[in-house]
Amino acid sequence: MTLVSGTAAVLYATNNNITRLLKEELLVSERIFLTLLNDNSAQLKNRAEILADDFAFKNAVATNERDTVISVLANHANRINADMVLLVSKNKDIEVTSHNLSPMVKKLRERLDPNKSVDLLVISNSQPFLVVFVPVKTPDLIGWVGLGFSINQSLLDHLKGLTNQDITLIYQTTLNSENNTISTLKGNVQSKPNVSVDINQYIKEMIKILSNGGQITRSFQLLKEENQQIIGILSSSIDEAMRSYNPMRIQMVLIGLISLAFAAIGAFLISKGVTRPINYLVKSAKRISNGDYSQPVHLSSSQEFNVLGSTLELMQQTVHEREGRIKHQSRHDMLTQLPNRYSIFSTINNRIAEKTANMQFGLGLLNIDNLPSLTDMYGSEFSDQLLKKVAERLSHSLRRGDIASRIGDMQFLIFFDGMSHSGIDKVADKLVKLIQQPINTNTITVNLEPSLGFVLCPQHGGIFDDLLRRAQIALQKCSAPKRFYSVYEIGQDEIHLRQIKVTHRLQYAIKNRSFQLYYQPKYDLKKGEINQLEALIRWTDTELGPMYPDEFIMLAEHSGDITKISSIVLDMVLEQLMSWRNNEQQLAISINLSGVDIAKKEFITDLISRFNETGLDSKLLVIEITETVMMVDLETSLSNLEKLKAAGFSISVDDFGTGFSSLSQLKVLPAAELKIDKSLILSLDESQSDQLIVRSTIEMGHHLGLRIVAEGVENIESAILLNNMGCDAIQGYYLAKAMPVIALEDWLKNPPDQLKTLRSPTFNC
Predict the structure, then answer these.
(1) Res 596 pLDDT > 60
(2) Residue range 165-193: average pLDDT?
(3) How far is CA 86 from CA 54, 90, 675, in A?
(4) What residues have CB less than 8 Å from 341, skipping those under 6 apart?
C-alpha cells in the first residue's frame, strides 16, 4: 500500500510540477516578450537620439524644411528598418507621419515630455506598433522625432523560437469593433470565437478553446485605452510536456509492480528510498518555480529517480540559459556583440558617480566615414561583416579596463580608463593605423577611413549626454580640414549652439525680409567713371545684433536657405534698378550667387523671367560666381550659366586666385569678367611677387577676352600700378566702402577727393 501510495504521489507530484513549471515558463515567456519590446524600444530610442542630435536634421526641423525632414526621416527609417516614422511639432501637432495616428493624438499630447523620451503602444492601419518619441532641441525644444516598429507575426515567431511557447495577440482598434488576431498557433486550435463579440468575451472563449485543446494559458494586457486594446495570450501544450515523461512513468509503474513482489522483504528500505527522493524533487521543483537556479538537481538514488532529477536539472538549466541570453541581448549589440549604448551609458554613469579624487577617463567616438559608400557598393551584409571585424580589432587592442561599444550604425564609443590629454595622440595614432589596415571580406579587400573625436572627463563635462555631444562636435571637426582625429576644445559647444541659434533666427529674417543692401562702387579705369556697383547683403538681428555675411551665408548654404536669401536680394536689386530707371540713372549692379543657386534650374528660370518682366536692359545685372559653382552639379551649373549668358547677363568670376581649379574653370565657364581676389591686391604696392601674379593674370584674362576687375584696392599706389598694368576696373576701400543707397546717391552727387584723383590727367599719364 505504501509503495502504491508513493508511486501515485510521485506521479501526482510530477504532474503538478510539470503544470507548475509550464505556468512558470509562461510567466518567463511573458517577461521575455516584454523584454523584447523593451530592447527594441531601447534600440529605437538610441537611433532616434542619434537622429535628434544630428546637426543637419535639427537645422531642417528648426528651419521648417519639410522636404529635407521627410527625406532624412525616410532614409533613416530605411537604414534601421523602422516601420513607422513621424515628426511632432513643439505644439504637439503631428507634422510628418507614415501612418494614420489620429486615434493616438490625445494620448500623445498627454504623454510627450520635453525632457525625456517616451514610448507608446498604438494601433494604426489595423496593426499594433511600439513607437518611441525623442525630443529634438536646439537647445530649445523644437519638436519630437518618433520611430516605431510593428508588433507582427515575425516578432511573435521570434518569441516562440526563444521560449517554445505559442503567443496570440488580440487587439481591437476602436470600441466595439471587430477583434484582430496575430498568433503562432496553427493546427492547435480547430475553431475561433466570433470576431464581432466583445473583446473580453472573445478572450474568455479563446482561453476555453485552448484549455479544451490541452493547453495551459496565461493572459496579459499590453494596452487598454478608451478606444484601443491589446491583450496577449501565452499557451503551452500539456500533452507535449508530459510526453517526455512517459518513459519515466512506465518505469515507475514497472518498479512498482516489481517492488510489490518484494514488498514483504524490503518495505521499509523501499519506502525510505522513495520518500526521500520525492521530497527532494518536490523541494527542487518549488525552488525552480521561485526563480532560484543556483543549486543543481542531483540524486544519488536509483536510476529511475535519477532520470526525473536529470530532467528537472535540464529544465532548470534551460530556463536559466534563456534568462541569461535575454539579459545579454539587452546590454549588447546583436551584430558585433560589443556593449551597446545602454551598457556603456551605465558604465560611465557609475564611474562618474564614484567621485574619487583620481576619477579621470577619456571617450573616443570612432566613425567609419566611408562605410555608407561601401554599403551602397557591396551591400548591407558586406558592411555588417566589416563592422564585425572592426569590433574584433578594437576588442583585441584595448588595455585592461578599457571598453569598446557600438552606439550607432557606423559609430563606436571607446572608454579609456585613466586617459589624460597627453596620451590622446598616442592612442589616436594606434587606433587609426589599426582601422586603416586592409580588411578582406568575401575575396574583396577594402580600406576603411576612420575619424575620431575625443573628450576627457571631468575636463569636458561630468554628464554622459554632454560628453557624447561634445565628442560628436570634436568628430565633426575632422571633416574640415580633413584629419583623422580631433580633441574637443572648451568653447566649441557654444559655437555649435550659436550656429543653431543663428540658423533659427535666420528663418525669421527670411520670413520678414529683414535684410538691407549696401552698394560698393566699381571704377572703370578705361572710361574714367562709376558705371557698376556690387550689392552686398547686411543683416541686423533683434536678438543677435549685427550679423556678418561670412557667418550666416555659410550656415544658409548648409541649411538650404541660401536660395531664399538670393531671391530676396534679387527682388531688392530689381526694385532699385527700376527706381534709378525712373530717375534716368544708368548703373549696373552685380549680385553674388552661390553654387547651390546656380545648380537649381527653377531658380535660374525664375530669375530670367522676373528680370524680363521689369523691361530693364540685361546689361544692368551682372552675376558673380565663385569656383564653388563647379562643386555642386557641374553639368547642370554650366547649362544654367549658358542660359544666363543667352539672356544677356554678364557672368563674373569672383575671388579669382584663391582656388586650385580656377585656371581650368576659365576654359569652360561662359564668363565675361574676372575679379582678382583682394588677397593679391592688398599689398600690391609692396610685394613684387603679387605684382608679377596680377600682371600675368591681367594679360591672361585679356587674351581670353575677359574684363579684369581688381578688388581690395586701398591706396593710390596700388591703383596706379593696376592702371599701368591695363586693369579695366578697380574696387576697394580707397574708392569707397559699401554703403546704403541713400549714402551712395549722395556720394555720387558729391564725389570724394579719391575719385577726383582717379579722374585727373596726372593719374592717366
Answers:
(1) yes
(2) 72
(3) 16, 13, 48
(4) 42, 46, 405, 407, 413
